[in-house]
Amino acid sequence: MSSASSKDQPSTSKESFDVFYSEVKEIEKRDSVLTPTQQIDRLLRPGSTYFNLNPFEVLQIEPESEVADIKKRYRTLSILVHPDKNHDNKERAQMAFDIVARAWKILENDLARKKCLDVYEEAKGRTDHMIAEKRKKLKKEGRPTEPIPEDDPTKYKHAIYVMVMKLFADMERRRQKLDQRDQEERKRKRESEIEEEERVKADREWQQNFEESRQNRVNSWHDFQSGASKSKKTKKQKHMTGMMVPPKFKPESR
Predict the structure, then answer these.
(1) 73 neighbors 59 (Cβ within 8 angstroms)
(2) Among 35, 60, 50, 44, which Cα is nearest to 92's?
(3) pLDDT confidence bin for 3, thresholds 50/70/90
């Protein structure tokens, strides 16, 4: 009996996942008719920082929707929350509008959208693995037929939803960490450049001061030599002049 139950598990898991998407679609249909104020409140509700990391969650559209449908949904939602349509709530409307625009910018890019879809696939894979581990533990404890919470499609859906949020949050933390590391690296590089610039400037000033002081020393030495030469010449001239003057004649006394 336990073998039959084990064989049915993949089918049950797929059915649960199909139910999950069906329910999500119904929720999206219900939420799609929210008023502008309700949409703004939804996008700015407590915890929205984490909810809004998922662009599909922001636009309330299925992950596997076509780009044309995503774009149509974006336009509809952006009009609802546009600041010009919400004069009494312009500031919050602008914040909501920016969130919607950012979600569309991600999903219109093929590579970025593929990464988001990969998050959903990974979330489902991790959830299914977690369920398999729970069943394995129950089987080991001799309770193979005992149900687990995720047998309920609603709880299975919630488990995947929580895992999707966790994975998007992990991605955002890694991005912030890389940004911080990049900023620190650029800061260190700039500090190193400034230090090198100051060193080169100091060397240049020292060399300039040295050249100026050397020239002053040379000029001083030339002035000294020139002064000493003039002094010797003057003394020599005086000496020669003294030798050329004849002695005064003294009359002979009688």
Answers:
(1) yes
(2) 44
(3) very low
Say how far apart CA 205 and CA 94 lie, in whole Å: 55
**Residue whose C-alpha is closest to residue 60's, from 46, 80, 83, 84:** 80
CA distances from 220 to 129, 161, 216, 217, 234 (A): 91, 88, 6, 5, 21
The residue extents of the domains of the chain are 33-108
- Evaluated on CA atoms 69, 74, 77, 78, the torsion sign reads negative
Q: 115: closest CA among 72, 155, 182, 175? A: 175
Cα dist. 88→81, 115, 125, 146, 155 in Å? 12, 37, 45, 55, 39
Structural contact between residues 10 and 131, judged by C-beta atoms closer than 8 angstroms: no
Q: In this model, does residue 20 exceed pLDDT 60?
A: no
Are 39 and 77 a contacting pair, CB within 8 Å? yes
> SS3 for 42-68, per residue?
HHCCCCHHHHCCCHHHHHCCCCCCCHH
Average pLDDT over residues 47-76: 94
| pTM summary value | 0.59
CA distances from 213 to 67, 202, 210, 216, 225 (A): 75, 16, 5, 5, 18
- For 89, the token pair is 């709530």
pLDDT at 10 over 50: no
The CATH H-level (homologous superfamily) assignment of domain 33-108 is DnaJ domain (1.10.287.110)
Q: What is the pLDDT of residue 55?
A: 96
Task: Tell me the average pLDDT across 158-184.
Answer: 90
Least confident piece of the model among 70-74, 132-136, 183-187: 183-187
